[in-house]
Amino acid sequence: MDNLILVVILPLLAAFLMPAMARTSEVLARVTGLMVLFISIIIITSVWGSVDEQAVSYAIGGFRPPMGIVFYIDQLSLLFALLIPVMILLFWPWNKVTHIREYSLMMLLTASASGLVLSGDLFNIYVFYELLAVASYGLVVAQGRAGKKGEGAALAASLRYLILGAVGSVMMLIGIAIIYTQAGTLNLAHLALLAPEKLNNMAGLSAFALILIGVGVKAELFPVNTWVPEVYGAVSTRLSALMAGLLSKLAVIVIIRVLVLLFPQPEALQLMTILGMLGVISGELVAWRSRDMIRMLSFSSIGQLGLVFVAFSIPGDMGLMAGFAVALHHLLVKPALFMLASGWTGPLESLKGAAKQSPYIAALFVLLVMSLLGVPPLPGFWAKLLIVVNLASQAAPVYQFALAFVLIATVIEAAYLYRVVMILYHPNQGQQASVREKHKAFELVIASGAAVILIAVALQVQSMETKLSSMARQTGDRQHYINTVFSKLDLADIYHQNKVQQTDFRSNNQLQGSK
Amino acid sequence: MSVLDEVFILCALGALVLFVFHRIRGIEKLAVVFYAALLYLLIKMSGLGYGGEVIYSSFSLNILGETLQWRFDAVSWFFAIITVASGLFSAVFMSGKWGESYREKTSNAAYGTLQIALLLNVNSMLILLASGDLLSLFIGWELVSWASFMMMALNPDKQARQAAIKYIVYAMAGAMAFLAAMAYVYGITGSLQYAELAQASAALSNGQIILLSLLFFTGFAIKMGLIPFHLWQAVAYAETPAPGAVFLGAISARMGLYAIIVVLIQLIGLGHLQQIHIPFTFWNLQTVLAWVGALTTIIPTYIALKQNDARHLLAWHGVGQGGYMLLGLMTLNSLGSAGGLLHVFNYATYQAALFMTIGAVIYRTGTANFDKLGGLVTQMPLTFMVMVFSIIGLAGLPPMNGFVSKWMVYRSLLLDGEPLLFVAAVIGTLGTILSVYKLVHNTFLGQLRVEHQNVREAPLSLLIPMLVLAAIMFVTGMMPGLVLDWVASAQLAMGLVPVTYNLGGIVLASGGLDMIWITLILFYGLGVGAIIFYLLGGRAKRVHQYDNYAGGHFLTSRVRYHYSHNFYAGLMHLIGGWYRGSFKKLEQAIVSLVSLLSQLSENMYRSAQPAMMVIIVVVLSLWSISGGIN
Amino acid sequence: MIWIVSFVVFIMLASALAVLLLPNLIAAVAASSVVSLSLAVLFALMKAPDVAMTEAAIGAGLSSLLLAMALRRLGLWQLDKEQESK
Amino acid sequence: MRNISSLLFSGGLAFLLLVLATQLPFGHTSMLLGNDILQAAPDEVGTGNIVAAVLLAYRGIDTLGELAILFTAAASVGLILGQRSNHSAKRDKTITESHFITSRASDLMMPLLIIVGFYIIFYGHLTPGGGFQGGVILAIAFFLPVLTRPGTTIDHGMITIIEGLAGAGFIMIGLWAMLYGKPFLQPFFDTFLGNGIFGSLWSAGTLPLLYLAVGLKVGAELAGLLVTISEAPAAEVERT
Amino acid sequence: MTMPGIEVVFYTGAIGLIVIGMAGVLMVKNVFRMLLALVLLEAGASLLLILSGFRETGVAPILLSGHAAGQLMNDPVPQALVLTAIVIGVGIQALALALILRIKHRYHSLDMGEIREQMEHDIAVNSGVVSPASAQSPEPGGHHHG
Question: Using the 8-state DSSP alphabet, how is residue B48 labeled?
Fold first, then answer.
């Protein structure tokens, strides 16, 4: 388990050394990156399943938890720690023209993403989040469409993304400052312990709002997601897939961690519901109007992320479970759709009869789209069902509105996605059929892989449910988090020191038990 | 392993085999065998139709703390047997000459896809019918929607494809309404089991029941094409390849009825529907639903009257006939609901037969446009006969089966003291009679067109299913007791008092109906008439088809006169086109609203720093929300 | 003490406004450098010598150098001209 | 419209923060973490400058992340501007030959700055200052000639290697501890470095080494950034 | 209510910087100035963060021989955090500068509105919705300067 920190460290090491290595041997530098990814995967698989019952924490530098930084490893972080190298590997730029610095950026992305999900310290999360952000700005510029015109678009989109992201980061920093002023600590477990007393007030709520907006930039949260169509429109689908699929989810995971541990007030959840549902409806509405596939998928991604936020904003473990289901589903489907879209550029009308040309791809597309919409036997349905059912059982009126929004948005989503399907299966060939780009092999492999996983999950839905619910239970268990990070001795110490009454601790426990 | 398991395994196997081999010639024979086997399995279950025990599938799924189950009771069985029989007839129709010509026109793959679509439709409907709780009902519901979308999407016609998209949007909206209702039920009861809802519904407040019923009903009404959701169906169904139209027309839309039966009647309960008064009116929920049914019988039927294409005319009728079924069910008495259910069966027979006749006409002439047809009776007499049988049924005239079910509905409305609904139903029937006359006249009567002079009778492979259907219509018309057996046990399963019946018809205290007698008397009367005619030395003179006159206008053999264009011009002028237009405008208004909102959202995303503006909203909402703290 | 702090804060906010309002970009960069310097002073007054040093070196020194160089590269290095350049 | 809403928002933010001010215990914060560290750091880490202890020991991984961010930014800038490095020959003609005084001064300053930089780096764990501040000074020291003598160039390769090795060095020191079975970045894993005497240069375990790595890394990154931006192709100069 | 402490003055400075910075980012059209505003915003956040560990009577968290043993020290943690934040800030600033340089090269403008319009046109061309030959405006009449 101690080796798990290598998942963060090795990619960093590789990233630092790669440009220097490339001066002697470029091949070596590239191979290093791949090797690090493989090692990461091996490390994680070797500890896979060991945290199902009891999460583990790792104190970096061996300093006692509230002082030093800890990594917290539970099912959620382990799952994402595995997904990160796997996804990066899938979307690894294999071609030879890629600049070595871009590989370096990919490694930095891996490291920061892994750090983000593993970290158990608020400011450390900020640092990794910034690293993730800067690496993605770099990648956006680097992977700008290789067209004469496209380059400018990538630059401009990147700048706009950067400014929005930087403002978001500052917001987050202000939020952290407020939290630190209020609670005097940064360790998530320590904060979780103090939260009911210190953060359950207006200051805590503002801090949450600020952090939500800050991290929300990456998570495509409603008010701060204007960069999405621009960036996805300007960069290669490979990077769009990675950003929409993986990076947005990482930001969501951060928000969830913070929310679950630090902010017990229901207003925080409701704020997230409102933003989420505005995201759902606005994203789907614009997607309905879009005239090309990439733009459509970008806005659909905004909508789906809104759905993820709505799901996570449902209180209790069921909300977490619903959120995980939707987030993981989107993580699987959206990259695959982007992969298919990369061969289907141009206005939608030009795709007429594409199904005749490539029936297999069109069939894949239909399958993915159906899952995205939530057609029953496919996993998307179960995810959506979880949301809808749990939204309906909430008493607060905002959830009823959210329910209505989600359902209406689904109808709009069906309208535009099926318009595309009908275009694909149009009996007449479009004018540009002959000059259409071909799909590359790896794109098809990824999309087929996603489809296979979808079907497998559909067949194994029961065991997936158990897995997800156990993950949700573990993630939602604050006391578990606190107990994991602090040993019993430390805990007694902290209670003594902070004059937090033991009764608090017990009532907290009861709260968890009654859930 | 129960018989239901066997059904499902067979379905899965069939789908798999068909999917793998769909390009191979001869697959159609296999499909026919498949439907026959399915029918056989259903017949093995026929105990259900005579009041047998519920059959459970041993397959179940545990999810969300719910146990998903699949089971068949008498209601499901009743609908299932119609479904599978329609599938069988479509498959037979498709397997012969029609299939060959379709193959030639398109491709092996396209033909195979059609077969797959049909099979998926049948399978998904069986899954829907077998649902044992709300969740499995929803799953089945969605499957049916997508399967029929697939069928519709096969249509090359542009308008029909647009209709298919329209359909899927409508269907999605319906499904979402259903989902919302389901979630609402889960919110109240914490479960999705039928039993829980049935139990909980007794304790629900009126408002809750109204909301639930409204949501459920919206979902189901969209599938059935009830007012005000009637716009999509006819256009989408009409121009699907003939066997598809046969199947869709015969049974597909009836799944909405099945769901209404299950949820509104079985679960929410009959008493409830009657007790719940709509606020500010003097209606109760049942009356509202009955009026929806009544309006659905009228409006689409008169739209049908306007159609100039045989398929569209029939499809619009299909929408209207759904109204009768709902009307019958919503009388909630044993006679009316039996009528409604019986109408499902009857309607399936004659709608299938009618679509087949039109399919045959198209097979021979290549068109279903009334302006280009006429006088085919001389060329296709058997087809003509089938059509006459069917339209007698459709118009609800004796001795065909349509008469029985419509009689039951009328009778129950009268007995219930609902004269206005009765009048509405009669108006609907009037429209039906007018339009079926238009159908038969414009297709088969009048003068034959030159280009059709070489048209021959439909091939045997097309005729056989049509004739069999005609026979069924006649037999079940004469002996409705055969089907009433099933209807009665379905009623029992629904929790209604079953209708009393005998082989010939209905037994009522105040005068029943005995179709055997009616038929005999009818034939007797015909016989007497014939005898009198011939005894009086009745002279029949054969006139050539072209040797006729109209309005004093002399016609040469060069100028054919067939009065088909702008049929019922006067009537059309009277009733105008306003009713259809109004609903269309509603639809367009919604589309423009969405479009407007969409544009607004896009502008918001595009404007310089829109995100920041919205943060204001966030800050403000934060403030408003945080009123509770401190 | 409090007056010193107030004075520095005043200077800082005034130059912050100047960053936004001065028409000449070079002046704006200079103003931002002043903001950084006052900030460094504030940090020092707040008993944070490390931060003060960093802010002085990075904020006032390096960052201004970067901005000035970029301004030159942008072709906006024009002292005498009022411009809100395109 | 946009301005009004922007002002509204800014005003809202100010209002929010002002209201918060009445609630937040500024000046009397609980400092839970701070007190713990203030008490423990002298014994546990042995640095005079407790900020350095926090930066390198308690929150060492933050510092690593920060170095990575700088590295990423530099790499991205390299990607953005370096693509046209062949144009860098076309120097900006607006830079006139620098004055004698400035060039001489820079020659004099450079060694001084380098010494000061290294001093700040090495005494970072004892007195205010450290890798970051020293690194900046180093960067400026190496950049001065470029600024004062337009002809001078700095070898990008050299910068790449230094930044790579310095960053790797930081990680390696961390991993070194793992070799001894200690957690990553633990400063005391062996008697090799010893604890030293409190207050002396060689104290606080690996912290001085880490600060050296940080200093070199920051220096190299910032120098790289400066050089890259200064070599960027000028936009078409709007000369009057 | 006692006389406001010195921290109130610091706090005013922090809020002032944040608000001025935010207003600048939102309202300024020139991207270069926008970047300057961003720097102000970051400075404000740093000040706020330092303030969270500030005590009027505290001394710098450095152990020097001159200090009495029991003297109250300021919180070292926020100082370390701000150090980190400042360095991160300069990295982002450099990145943004590089982008601005290239964009100016490409689009011959520093005005955010113009840059956005040209970018949207480029994206539309890229996706094939608009033909490259068409005028600068991607969607006729579609511009809404909010």
Answer: G
Residues across chain B: 630
For testing the chain E interface, which of C39, C71, C72 should be mutated: the one with the most E CBs within 10 Å? C39
At CB < 8 Å, which residues of chain D contact C?
49, 51-52, 92, 94-95, 120, 128-130, 132-133, 136-137, 139-140, 143, 222, 225-226, 229-230, 232-240
Whole-angstrom Cα distance, residue A59 to residue A187?
11
Domain assignment present for C81: no
Domain of D150 in residue numbering reads as 48-230
**Does residue D37 lie in a domain region?**
no
Mean pLDDT of all residues in D146-165? 78
B142·A375 Cβ contact <8 A: yes
* Residue D234, Ramachandran bin (φ over 0: left; ψ between -120 and 50: alpha; else beta): beta
CB contact under 8 A, A141 and D76: yes
**Spans of all domains in chain A:** 1-120, 121-264, 267-476, 484-515
Distance CA A413, CA A366 (A): 13
**pTM of the predicted model, to two decimals?**
0.89
Decide if C80 is inside a domain: no
Pick the closest to residue D170 from D115, D233, D212, D229 (CA basis). Answer: D212
Mean pLDDT (chain D) is 77
Domains and CATH numbers, chain E: 6-56+75-107 (1.10.287.3510)
For B472, C19, E2, the CA distances from B406, given in Å and listed in that order, are 17, 85, 90
CB A362 within 8 A of CB B156: no
Question: D37–E76: do the CB atoms touch at under 8 Å?
Answer: yes
State the number of CA atoms in the 13 A half-sphere of B575 facing the CB: 18
**Structural domains in chain D (count):** 1
Phi, psi (rounded to 5 degrees) for A347: -60, 155
Closest by Cα among B185, B56, B81, B78 to B132: B56
Q: What pLDDT sits at residue E53? A: 82
Q: Confirm whether D25 is domain-assigned.
A: no
| CA D48 remoteness from chain centre | 20
Q: Report which residue type is found at E113.
A: G
Rounded to an integer, what distance in angstroms lies between the CA atom of residue B142 and that of residue B137?
9
Interface predicted TM-score of the whole assembly (ipTM), two decimals: 0.87
Say whether the C–E interface has 3 or more Cβ pairs within 8 Å: yes
In-domain check, residue C86? no
pLDDT, one tens digit for every residue, chain A (515 residues): 678 888 888 999 998 888 888 888 878 888 888 899 999 999 999 988 888 888 888 888 878 778 888 888 888 999 999 999 999 988 887 776 667 888 888 899 999 999 999 998 999 999 999 999 999 998 888 876 555 556 788 888 889 899 989 989 998 999 999 888 888 888 898 888 888 888 887 788 888 888 988 898 888 888 788 888 888 888 888 888 888 889 999 999 999 999 999 888 888 888 888 888 888 998 999 998 888 888 899 999 999 999 999 999 998 888 899 999 999 999 999 999 998 888 787 788 878 877 777 888 888 898 999 899 888 888 899 899 889 988 888 888 888 888 999 999 999 999 898 888 888 887 776 555 555 567 778 888 888 999 999 999 888 888 888 889 899 988 888 888 888 888 766 666 666 555 443 333 333 333 333 33
Summarize pLDDT for A65-76 with one digit per residue, the tens: 788 888 888 889
Rounded Cα distance between B162 and B93, Å, is 27
Hey, are the CB atoms on C73 and D137 less than 8 Å from each other? Answer: no
The whole-angstrom distance between residue B593's C-alpha and the CA centroid of its chain comes to: 31
Which candidate, B270, B508, B295, B276, places its Cα nearest to that of B412? B508
Mark which residues 219-238 of A lie under 8 Å from E by CB.
Answer: 229-230, 233-234
Q: Domain ranges in chain B? A: 287-328+337-547, 577-628
Is E53 in contact with D34 (Cβ distance < 8 A)?
Answer: yes
